[in-house]
Amino acid sequence: MVFFLLSLGICVALVAFSSLDTRLPMSKSRILLNPRDIDINMVNKNCNSWSSPYQLSYAIGVGDLVATSLNTFSTFMVHDKINYNIDEPSSSGKTLSIAFVNQRQYRAQQCFMSVKLVDNADGSTMLDKRYVITNGNQLAIQNDLLESLSKALNQPWPQRMQETLQQILPHRGALLTNFYQAHDYLLHGDDKSLNRASELLGEIVQSSPEFTYARAEKALVDIVRHSQHPLDEKQLAALNTEIDNIVTLPELNNLSIIYQIKAVSALVKGKTDESYQAINTGIDLEISWLNYVLLGKIYEMKGMNREAADAYLTAFNLRPGANTLYWIENGIFQTSVPYVVPYLDKFLASE
C-alpha cells in the first residue's frame, strides 16, 4: 500500500511539472522599434539616363554628412547603411532612403536624386524631396536637405554645427562633388583607394588653396598611408612639416580631423597616451565611425582588447559594411577580428 501511494504521488508530481513546463513562454524573435534611431539606405544607385560618374560618390558623401551631423549635434542615433547590402530586420524607428530615379520630364528622361524619410512606427512619410543635380547646385541641394531634415525631425541645428559646416565644406558646388569623390576613396581604406584619394585631394588643394579642410583630409590620408607603407625620409619630413602647419590653422582648430591626424601621427610613433588623448578630443567634437576605429586601434596598442572590441562595434554600428570592416581589419595595422571582436566575426558569418 505504501509503495502504491508513493508511486501515485510521483506520477501526480510528474504530471504537475509537465503541465507547468508547457506553460513556459515560447521564445520569439521580435524587434521593438526605437523612434530615436534612423537608418540611411541607398535604394537605387544610378540612373540609366545620367552618365555622370560622380553621382554615387555625391550621395555617399551627403549620407555620411547627414549621419555624422545628426549623431554629433542631436539626440538621434543614425546608422549609415549605404555601404551595407544585407536585408535584415532593423530596430530603427525611421528610415532615410536615397535613390536615383528616371522620370520623364518635358518629353525627356531626367535623373532625380530622391530622398525620403519614413516613420516606421506608422509608415507615414515625413519628408519626400526630389533634386535634379547640375554642375553647380550640389551645395545648394545639400543645404536644402539639411534644412528639410531639421524641420521634419523637429531638430534645430545648433550654431556650432553651422560653423562646422562652413569650415568643412567648399563654397562652390562643383568643388563639393570632387571632394566627395576623394572622400569616397578614403572610406574604402585600401591602398589603391587611399593613393587615389591623396591624388584627388592634392588636385583640389592646388586649384582651391582656400579650401583648407581638403588640405587637412589629404594630410590624414597621407599619414594613414605612411602607417601602412612607410614613406622615405624626405617624404616623411615634408609630411610632418605639412601636419605641423595644418594643426596650427585657427579655422581648423575645433574640427575632429585635426585630432584624427594627431592621433594617427602619435600612434605610428608609439605614443599611445598622446594618441589616446587626441582621439578622445576628436570624439568630443564628432561622433563618427572613423573616430571609433582609431579609438579601437589605440586600445589594441594599449593591450585593452575588451575596450577595443567595444570601439570597433560602435564604429560598425555607426557605418556597417565592407568599408568599415576593412578599416577595422587593416587600418594603421592589421587586426584579427575573430580574436579581438569575436561577436562581430560571428555576426558577419551569420550573413
UniProtKB/TrEMBL annotation:
InterPro entries: CadC_C1 (IPR040970), TPR-like_helical_dom_sf (IPR011990). NCBIfam families: PRK10153.1. It comes from the Bacteria. Pfam families: CadC_C1. The lineage of its organism: Bacteria, Pseudomonadati, Pseudomonadota, Gammaproteobacteria, Enterobacterales. The gene is cadC_3. Residues 30-163 form the CadC C-terminal domain. Gene3D superfamilies: 3.40.50.11830, Tetratricopeptide repeat domain. It comes from Escherichia coli. This is Transcriptional activator.
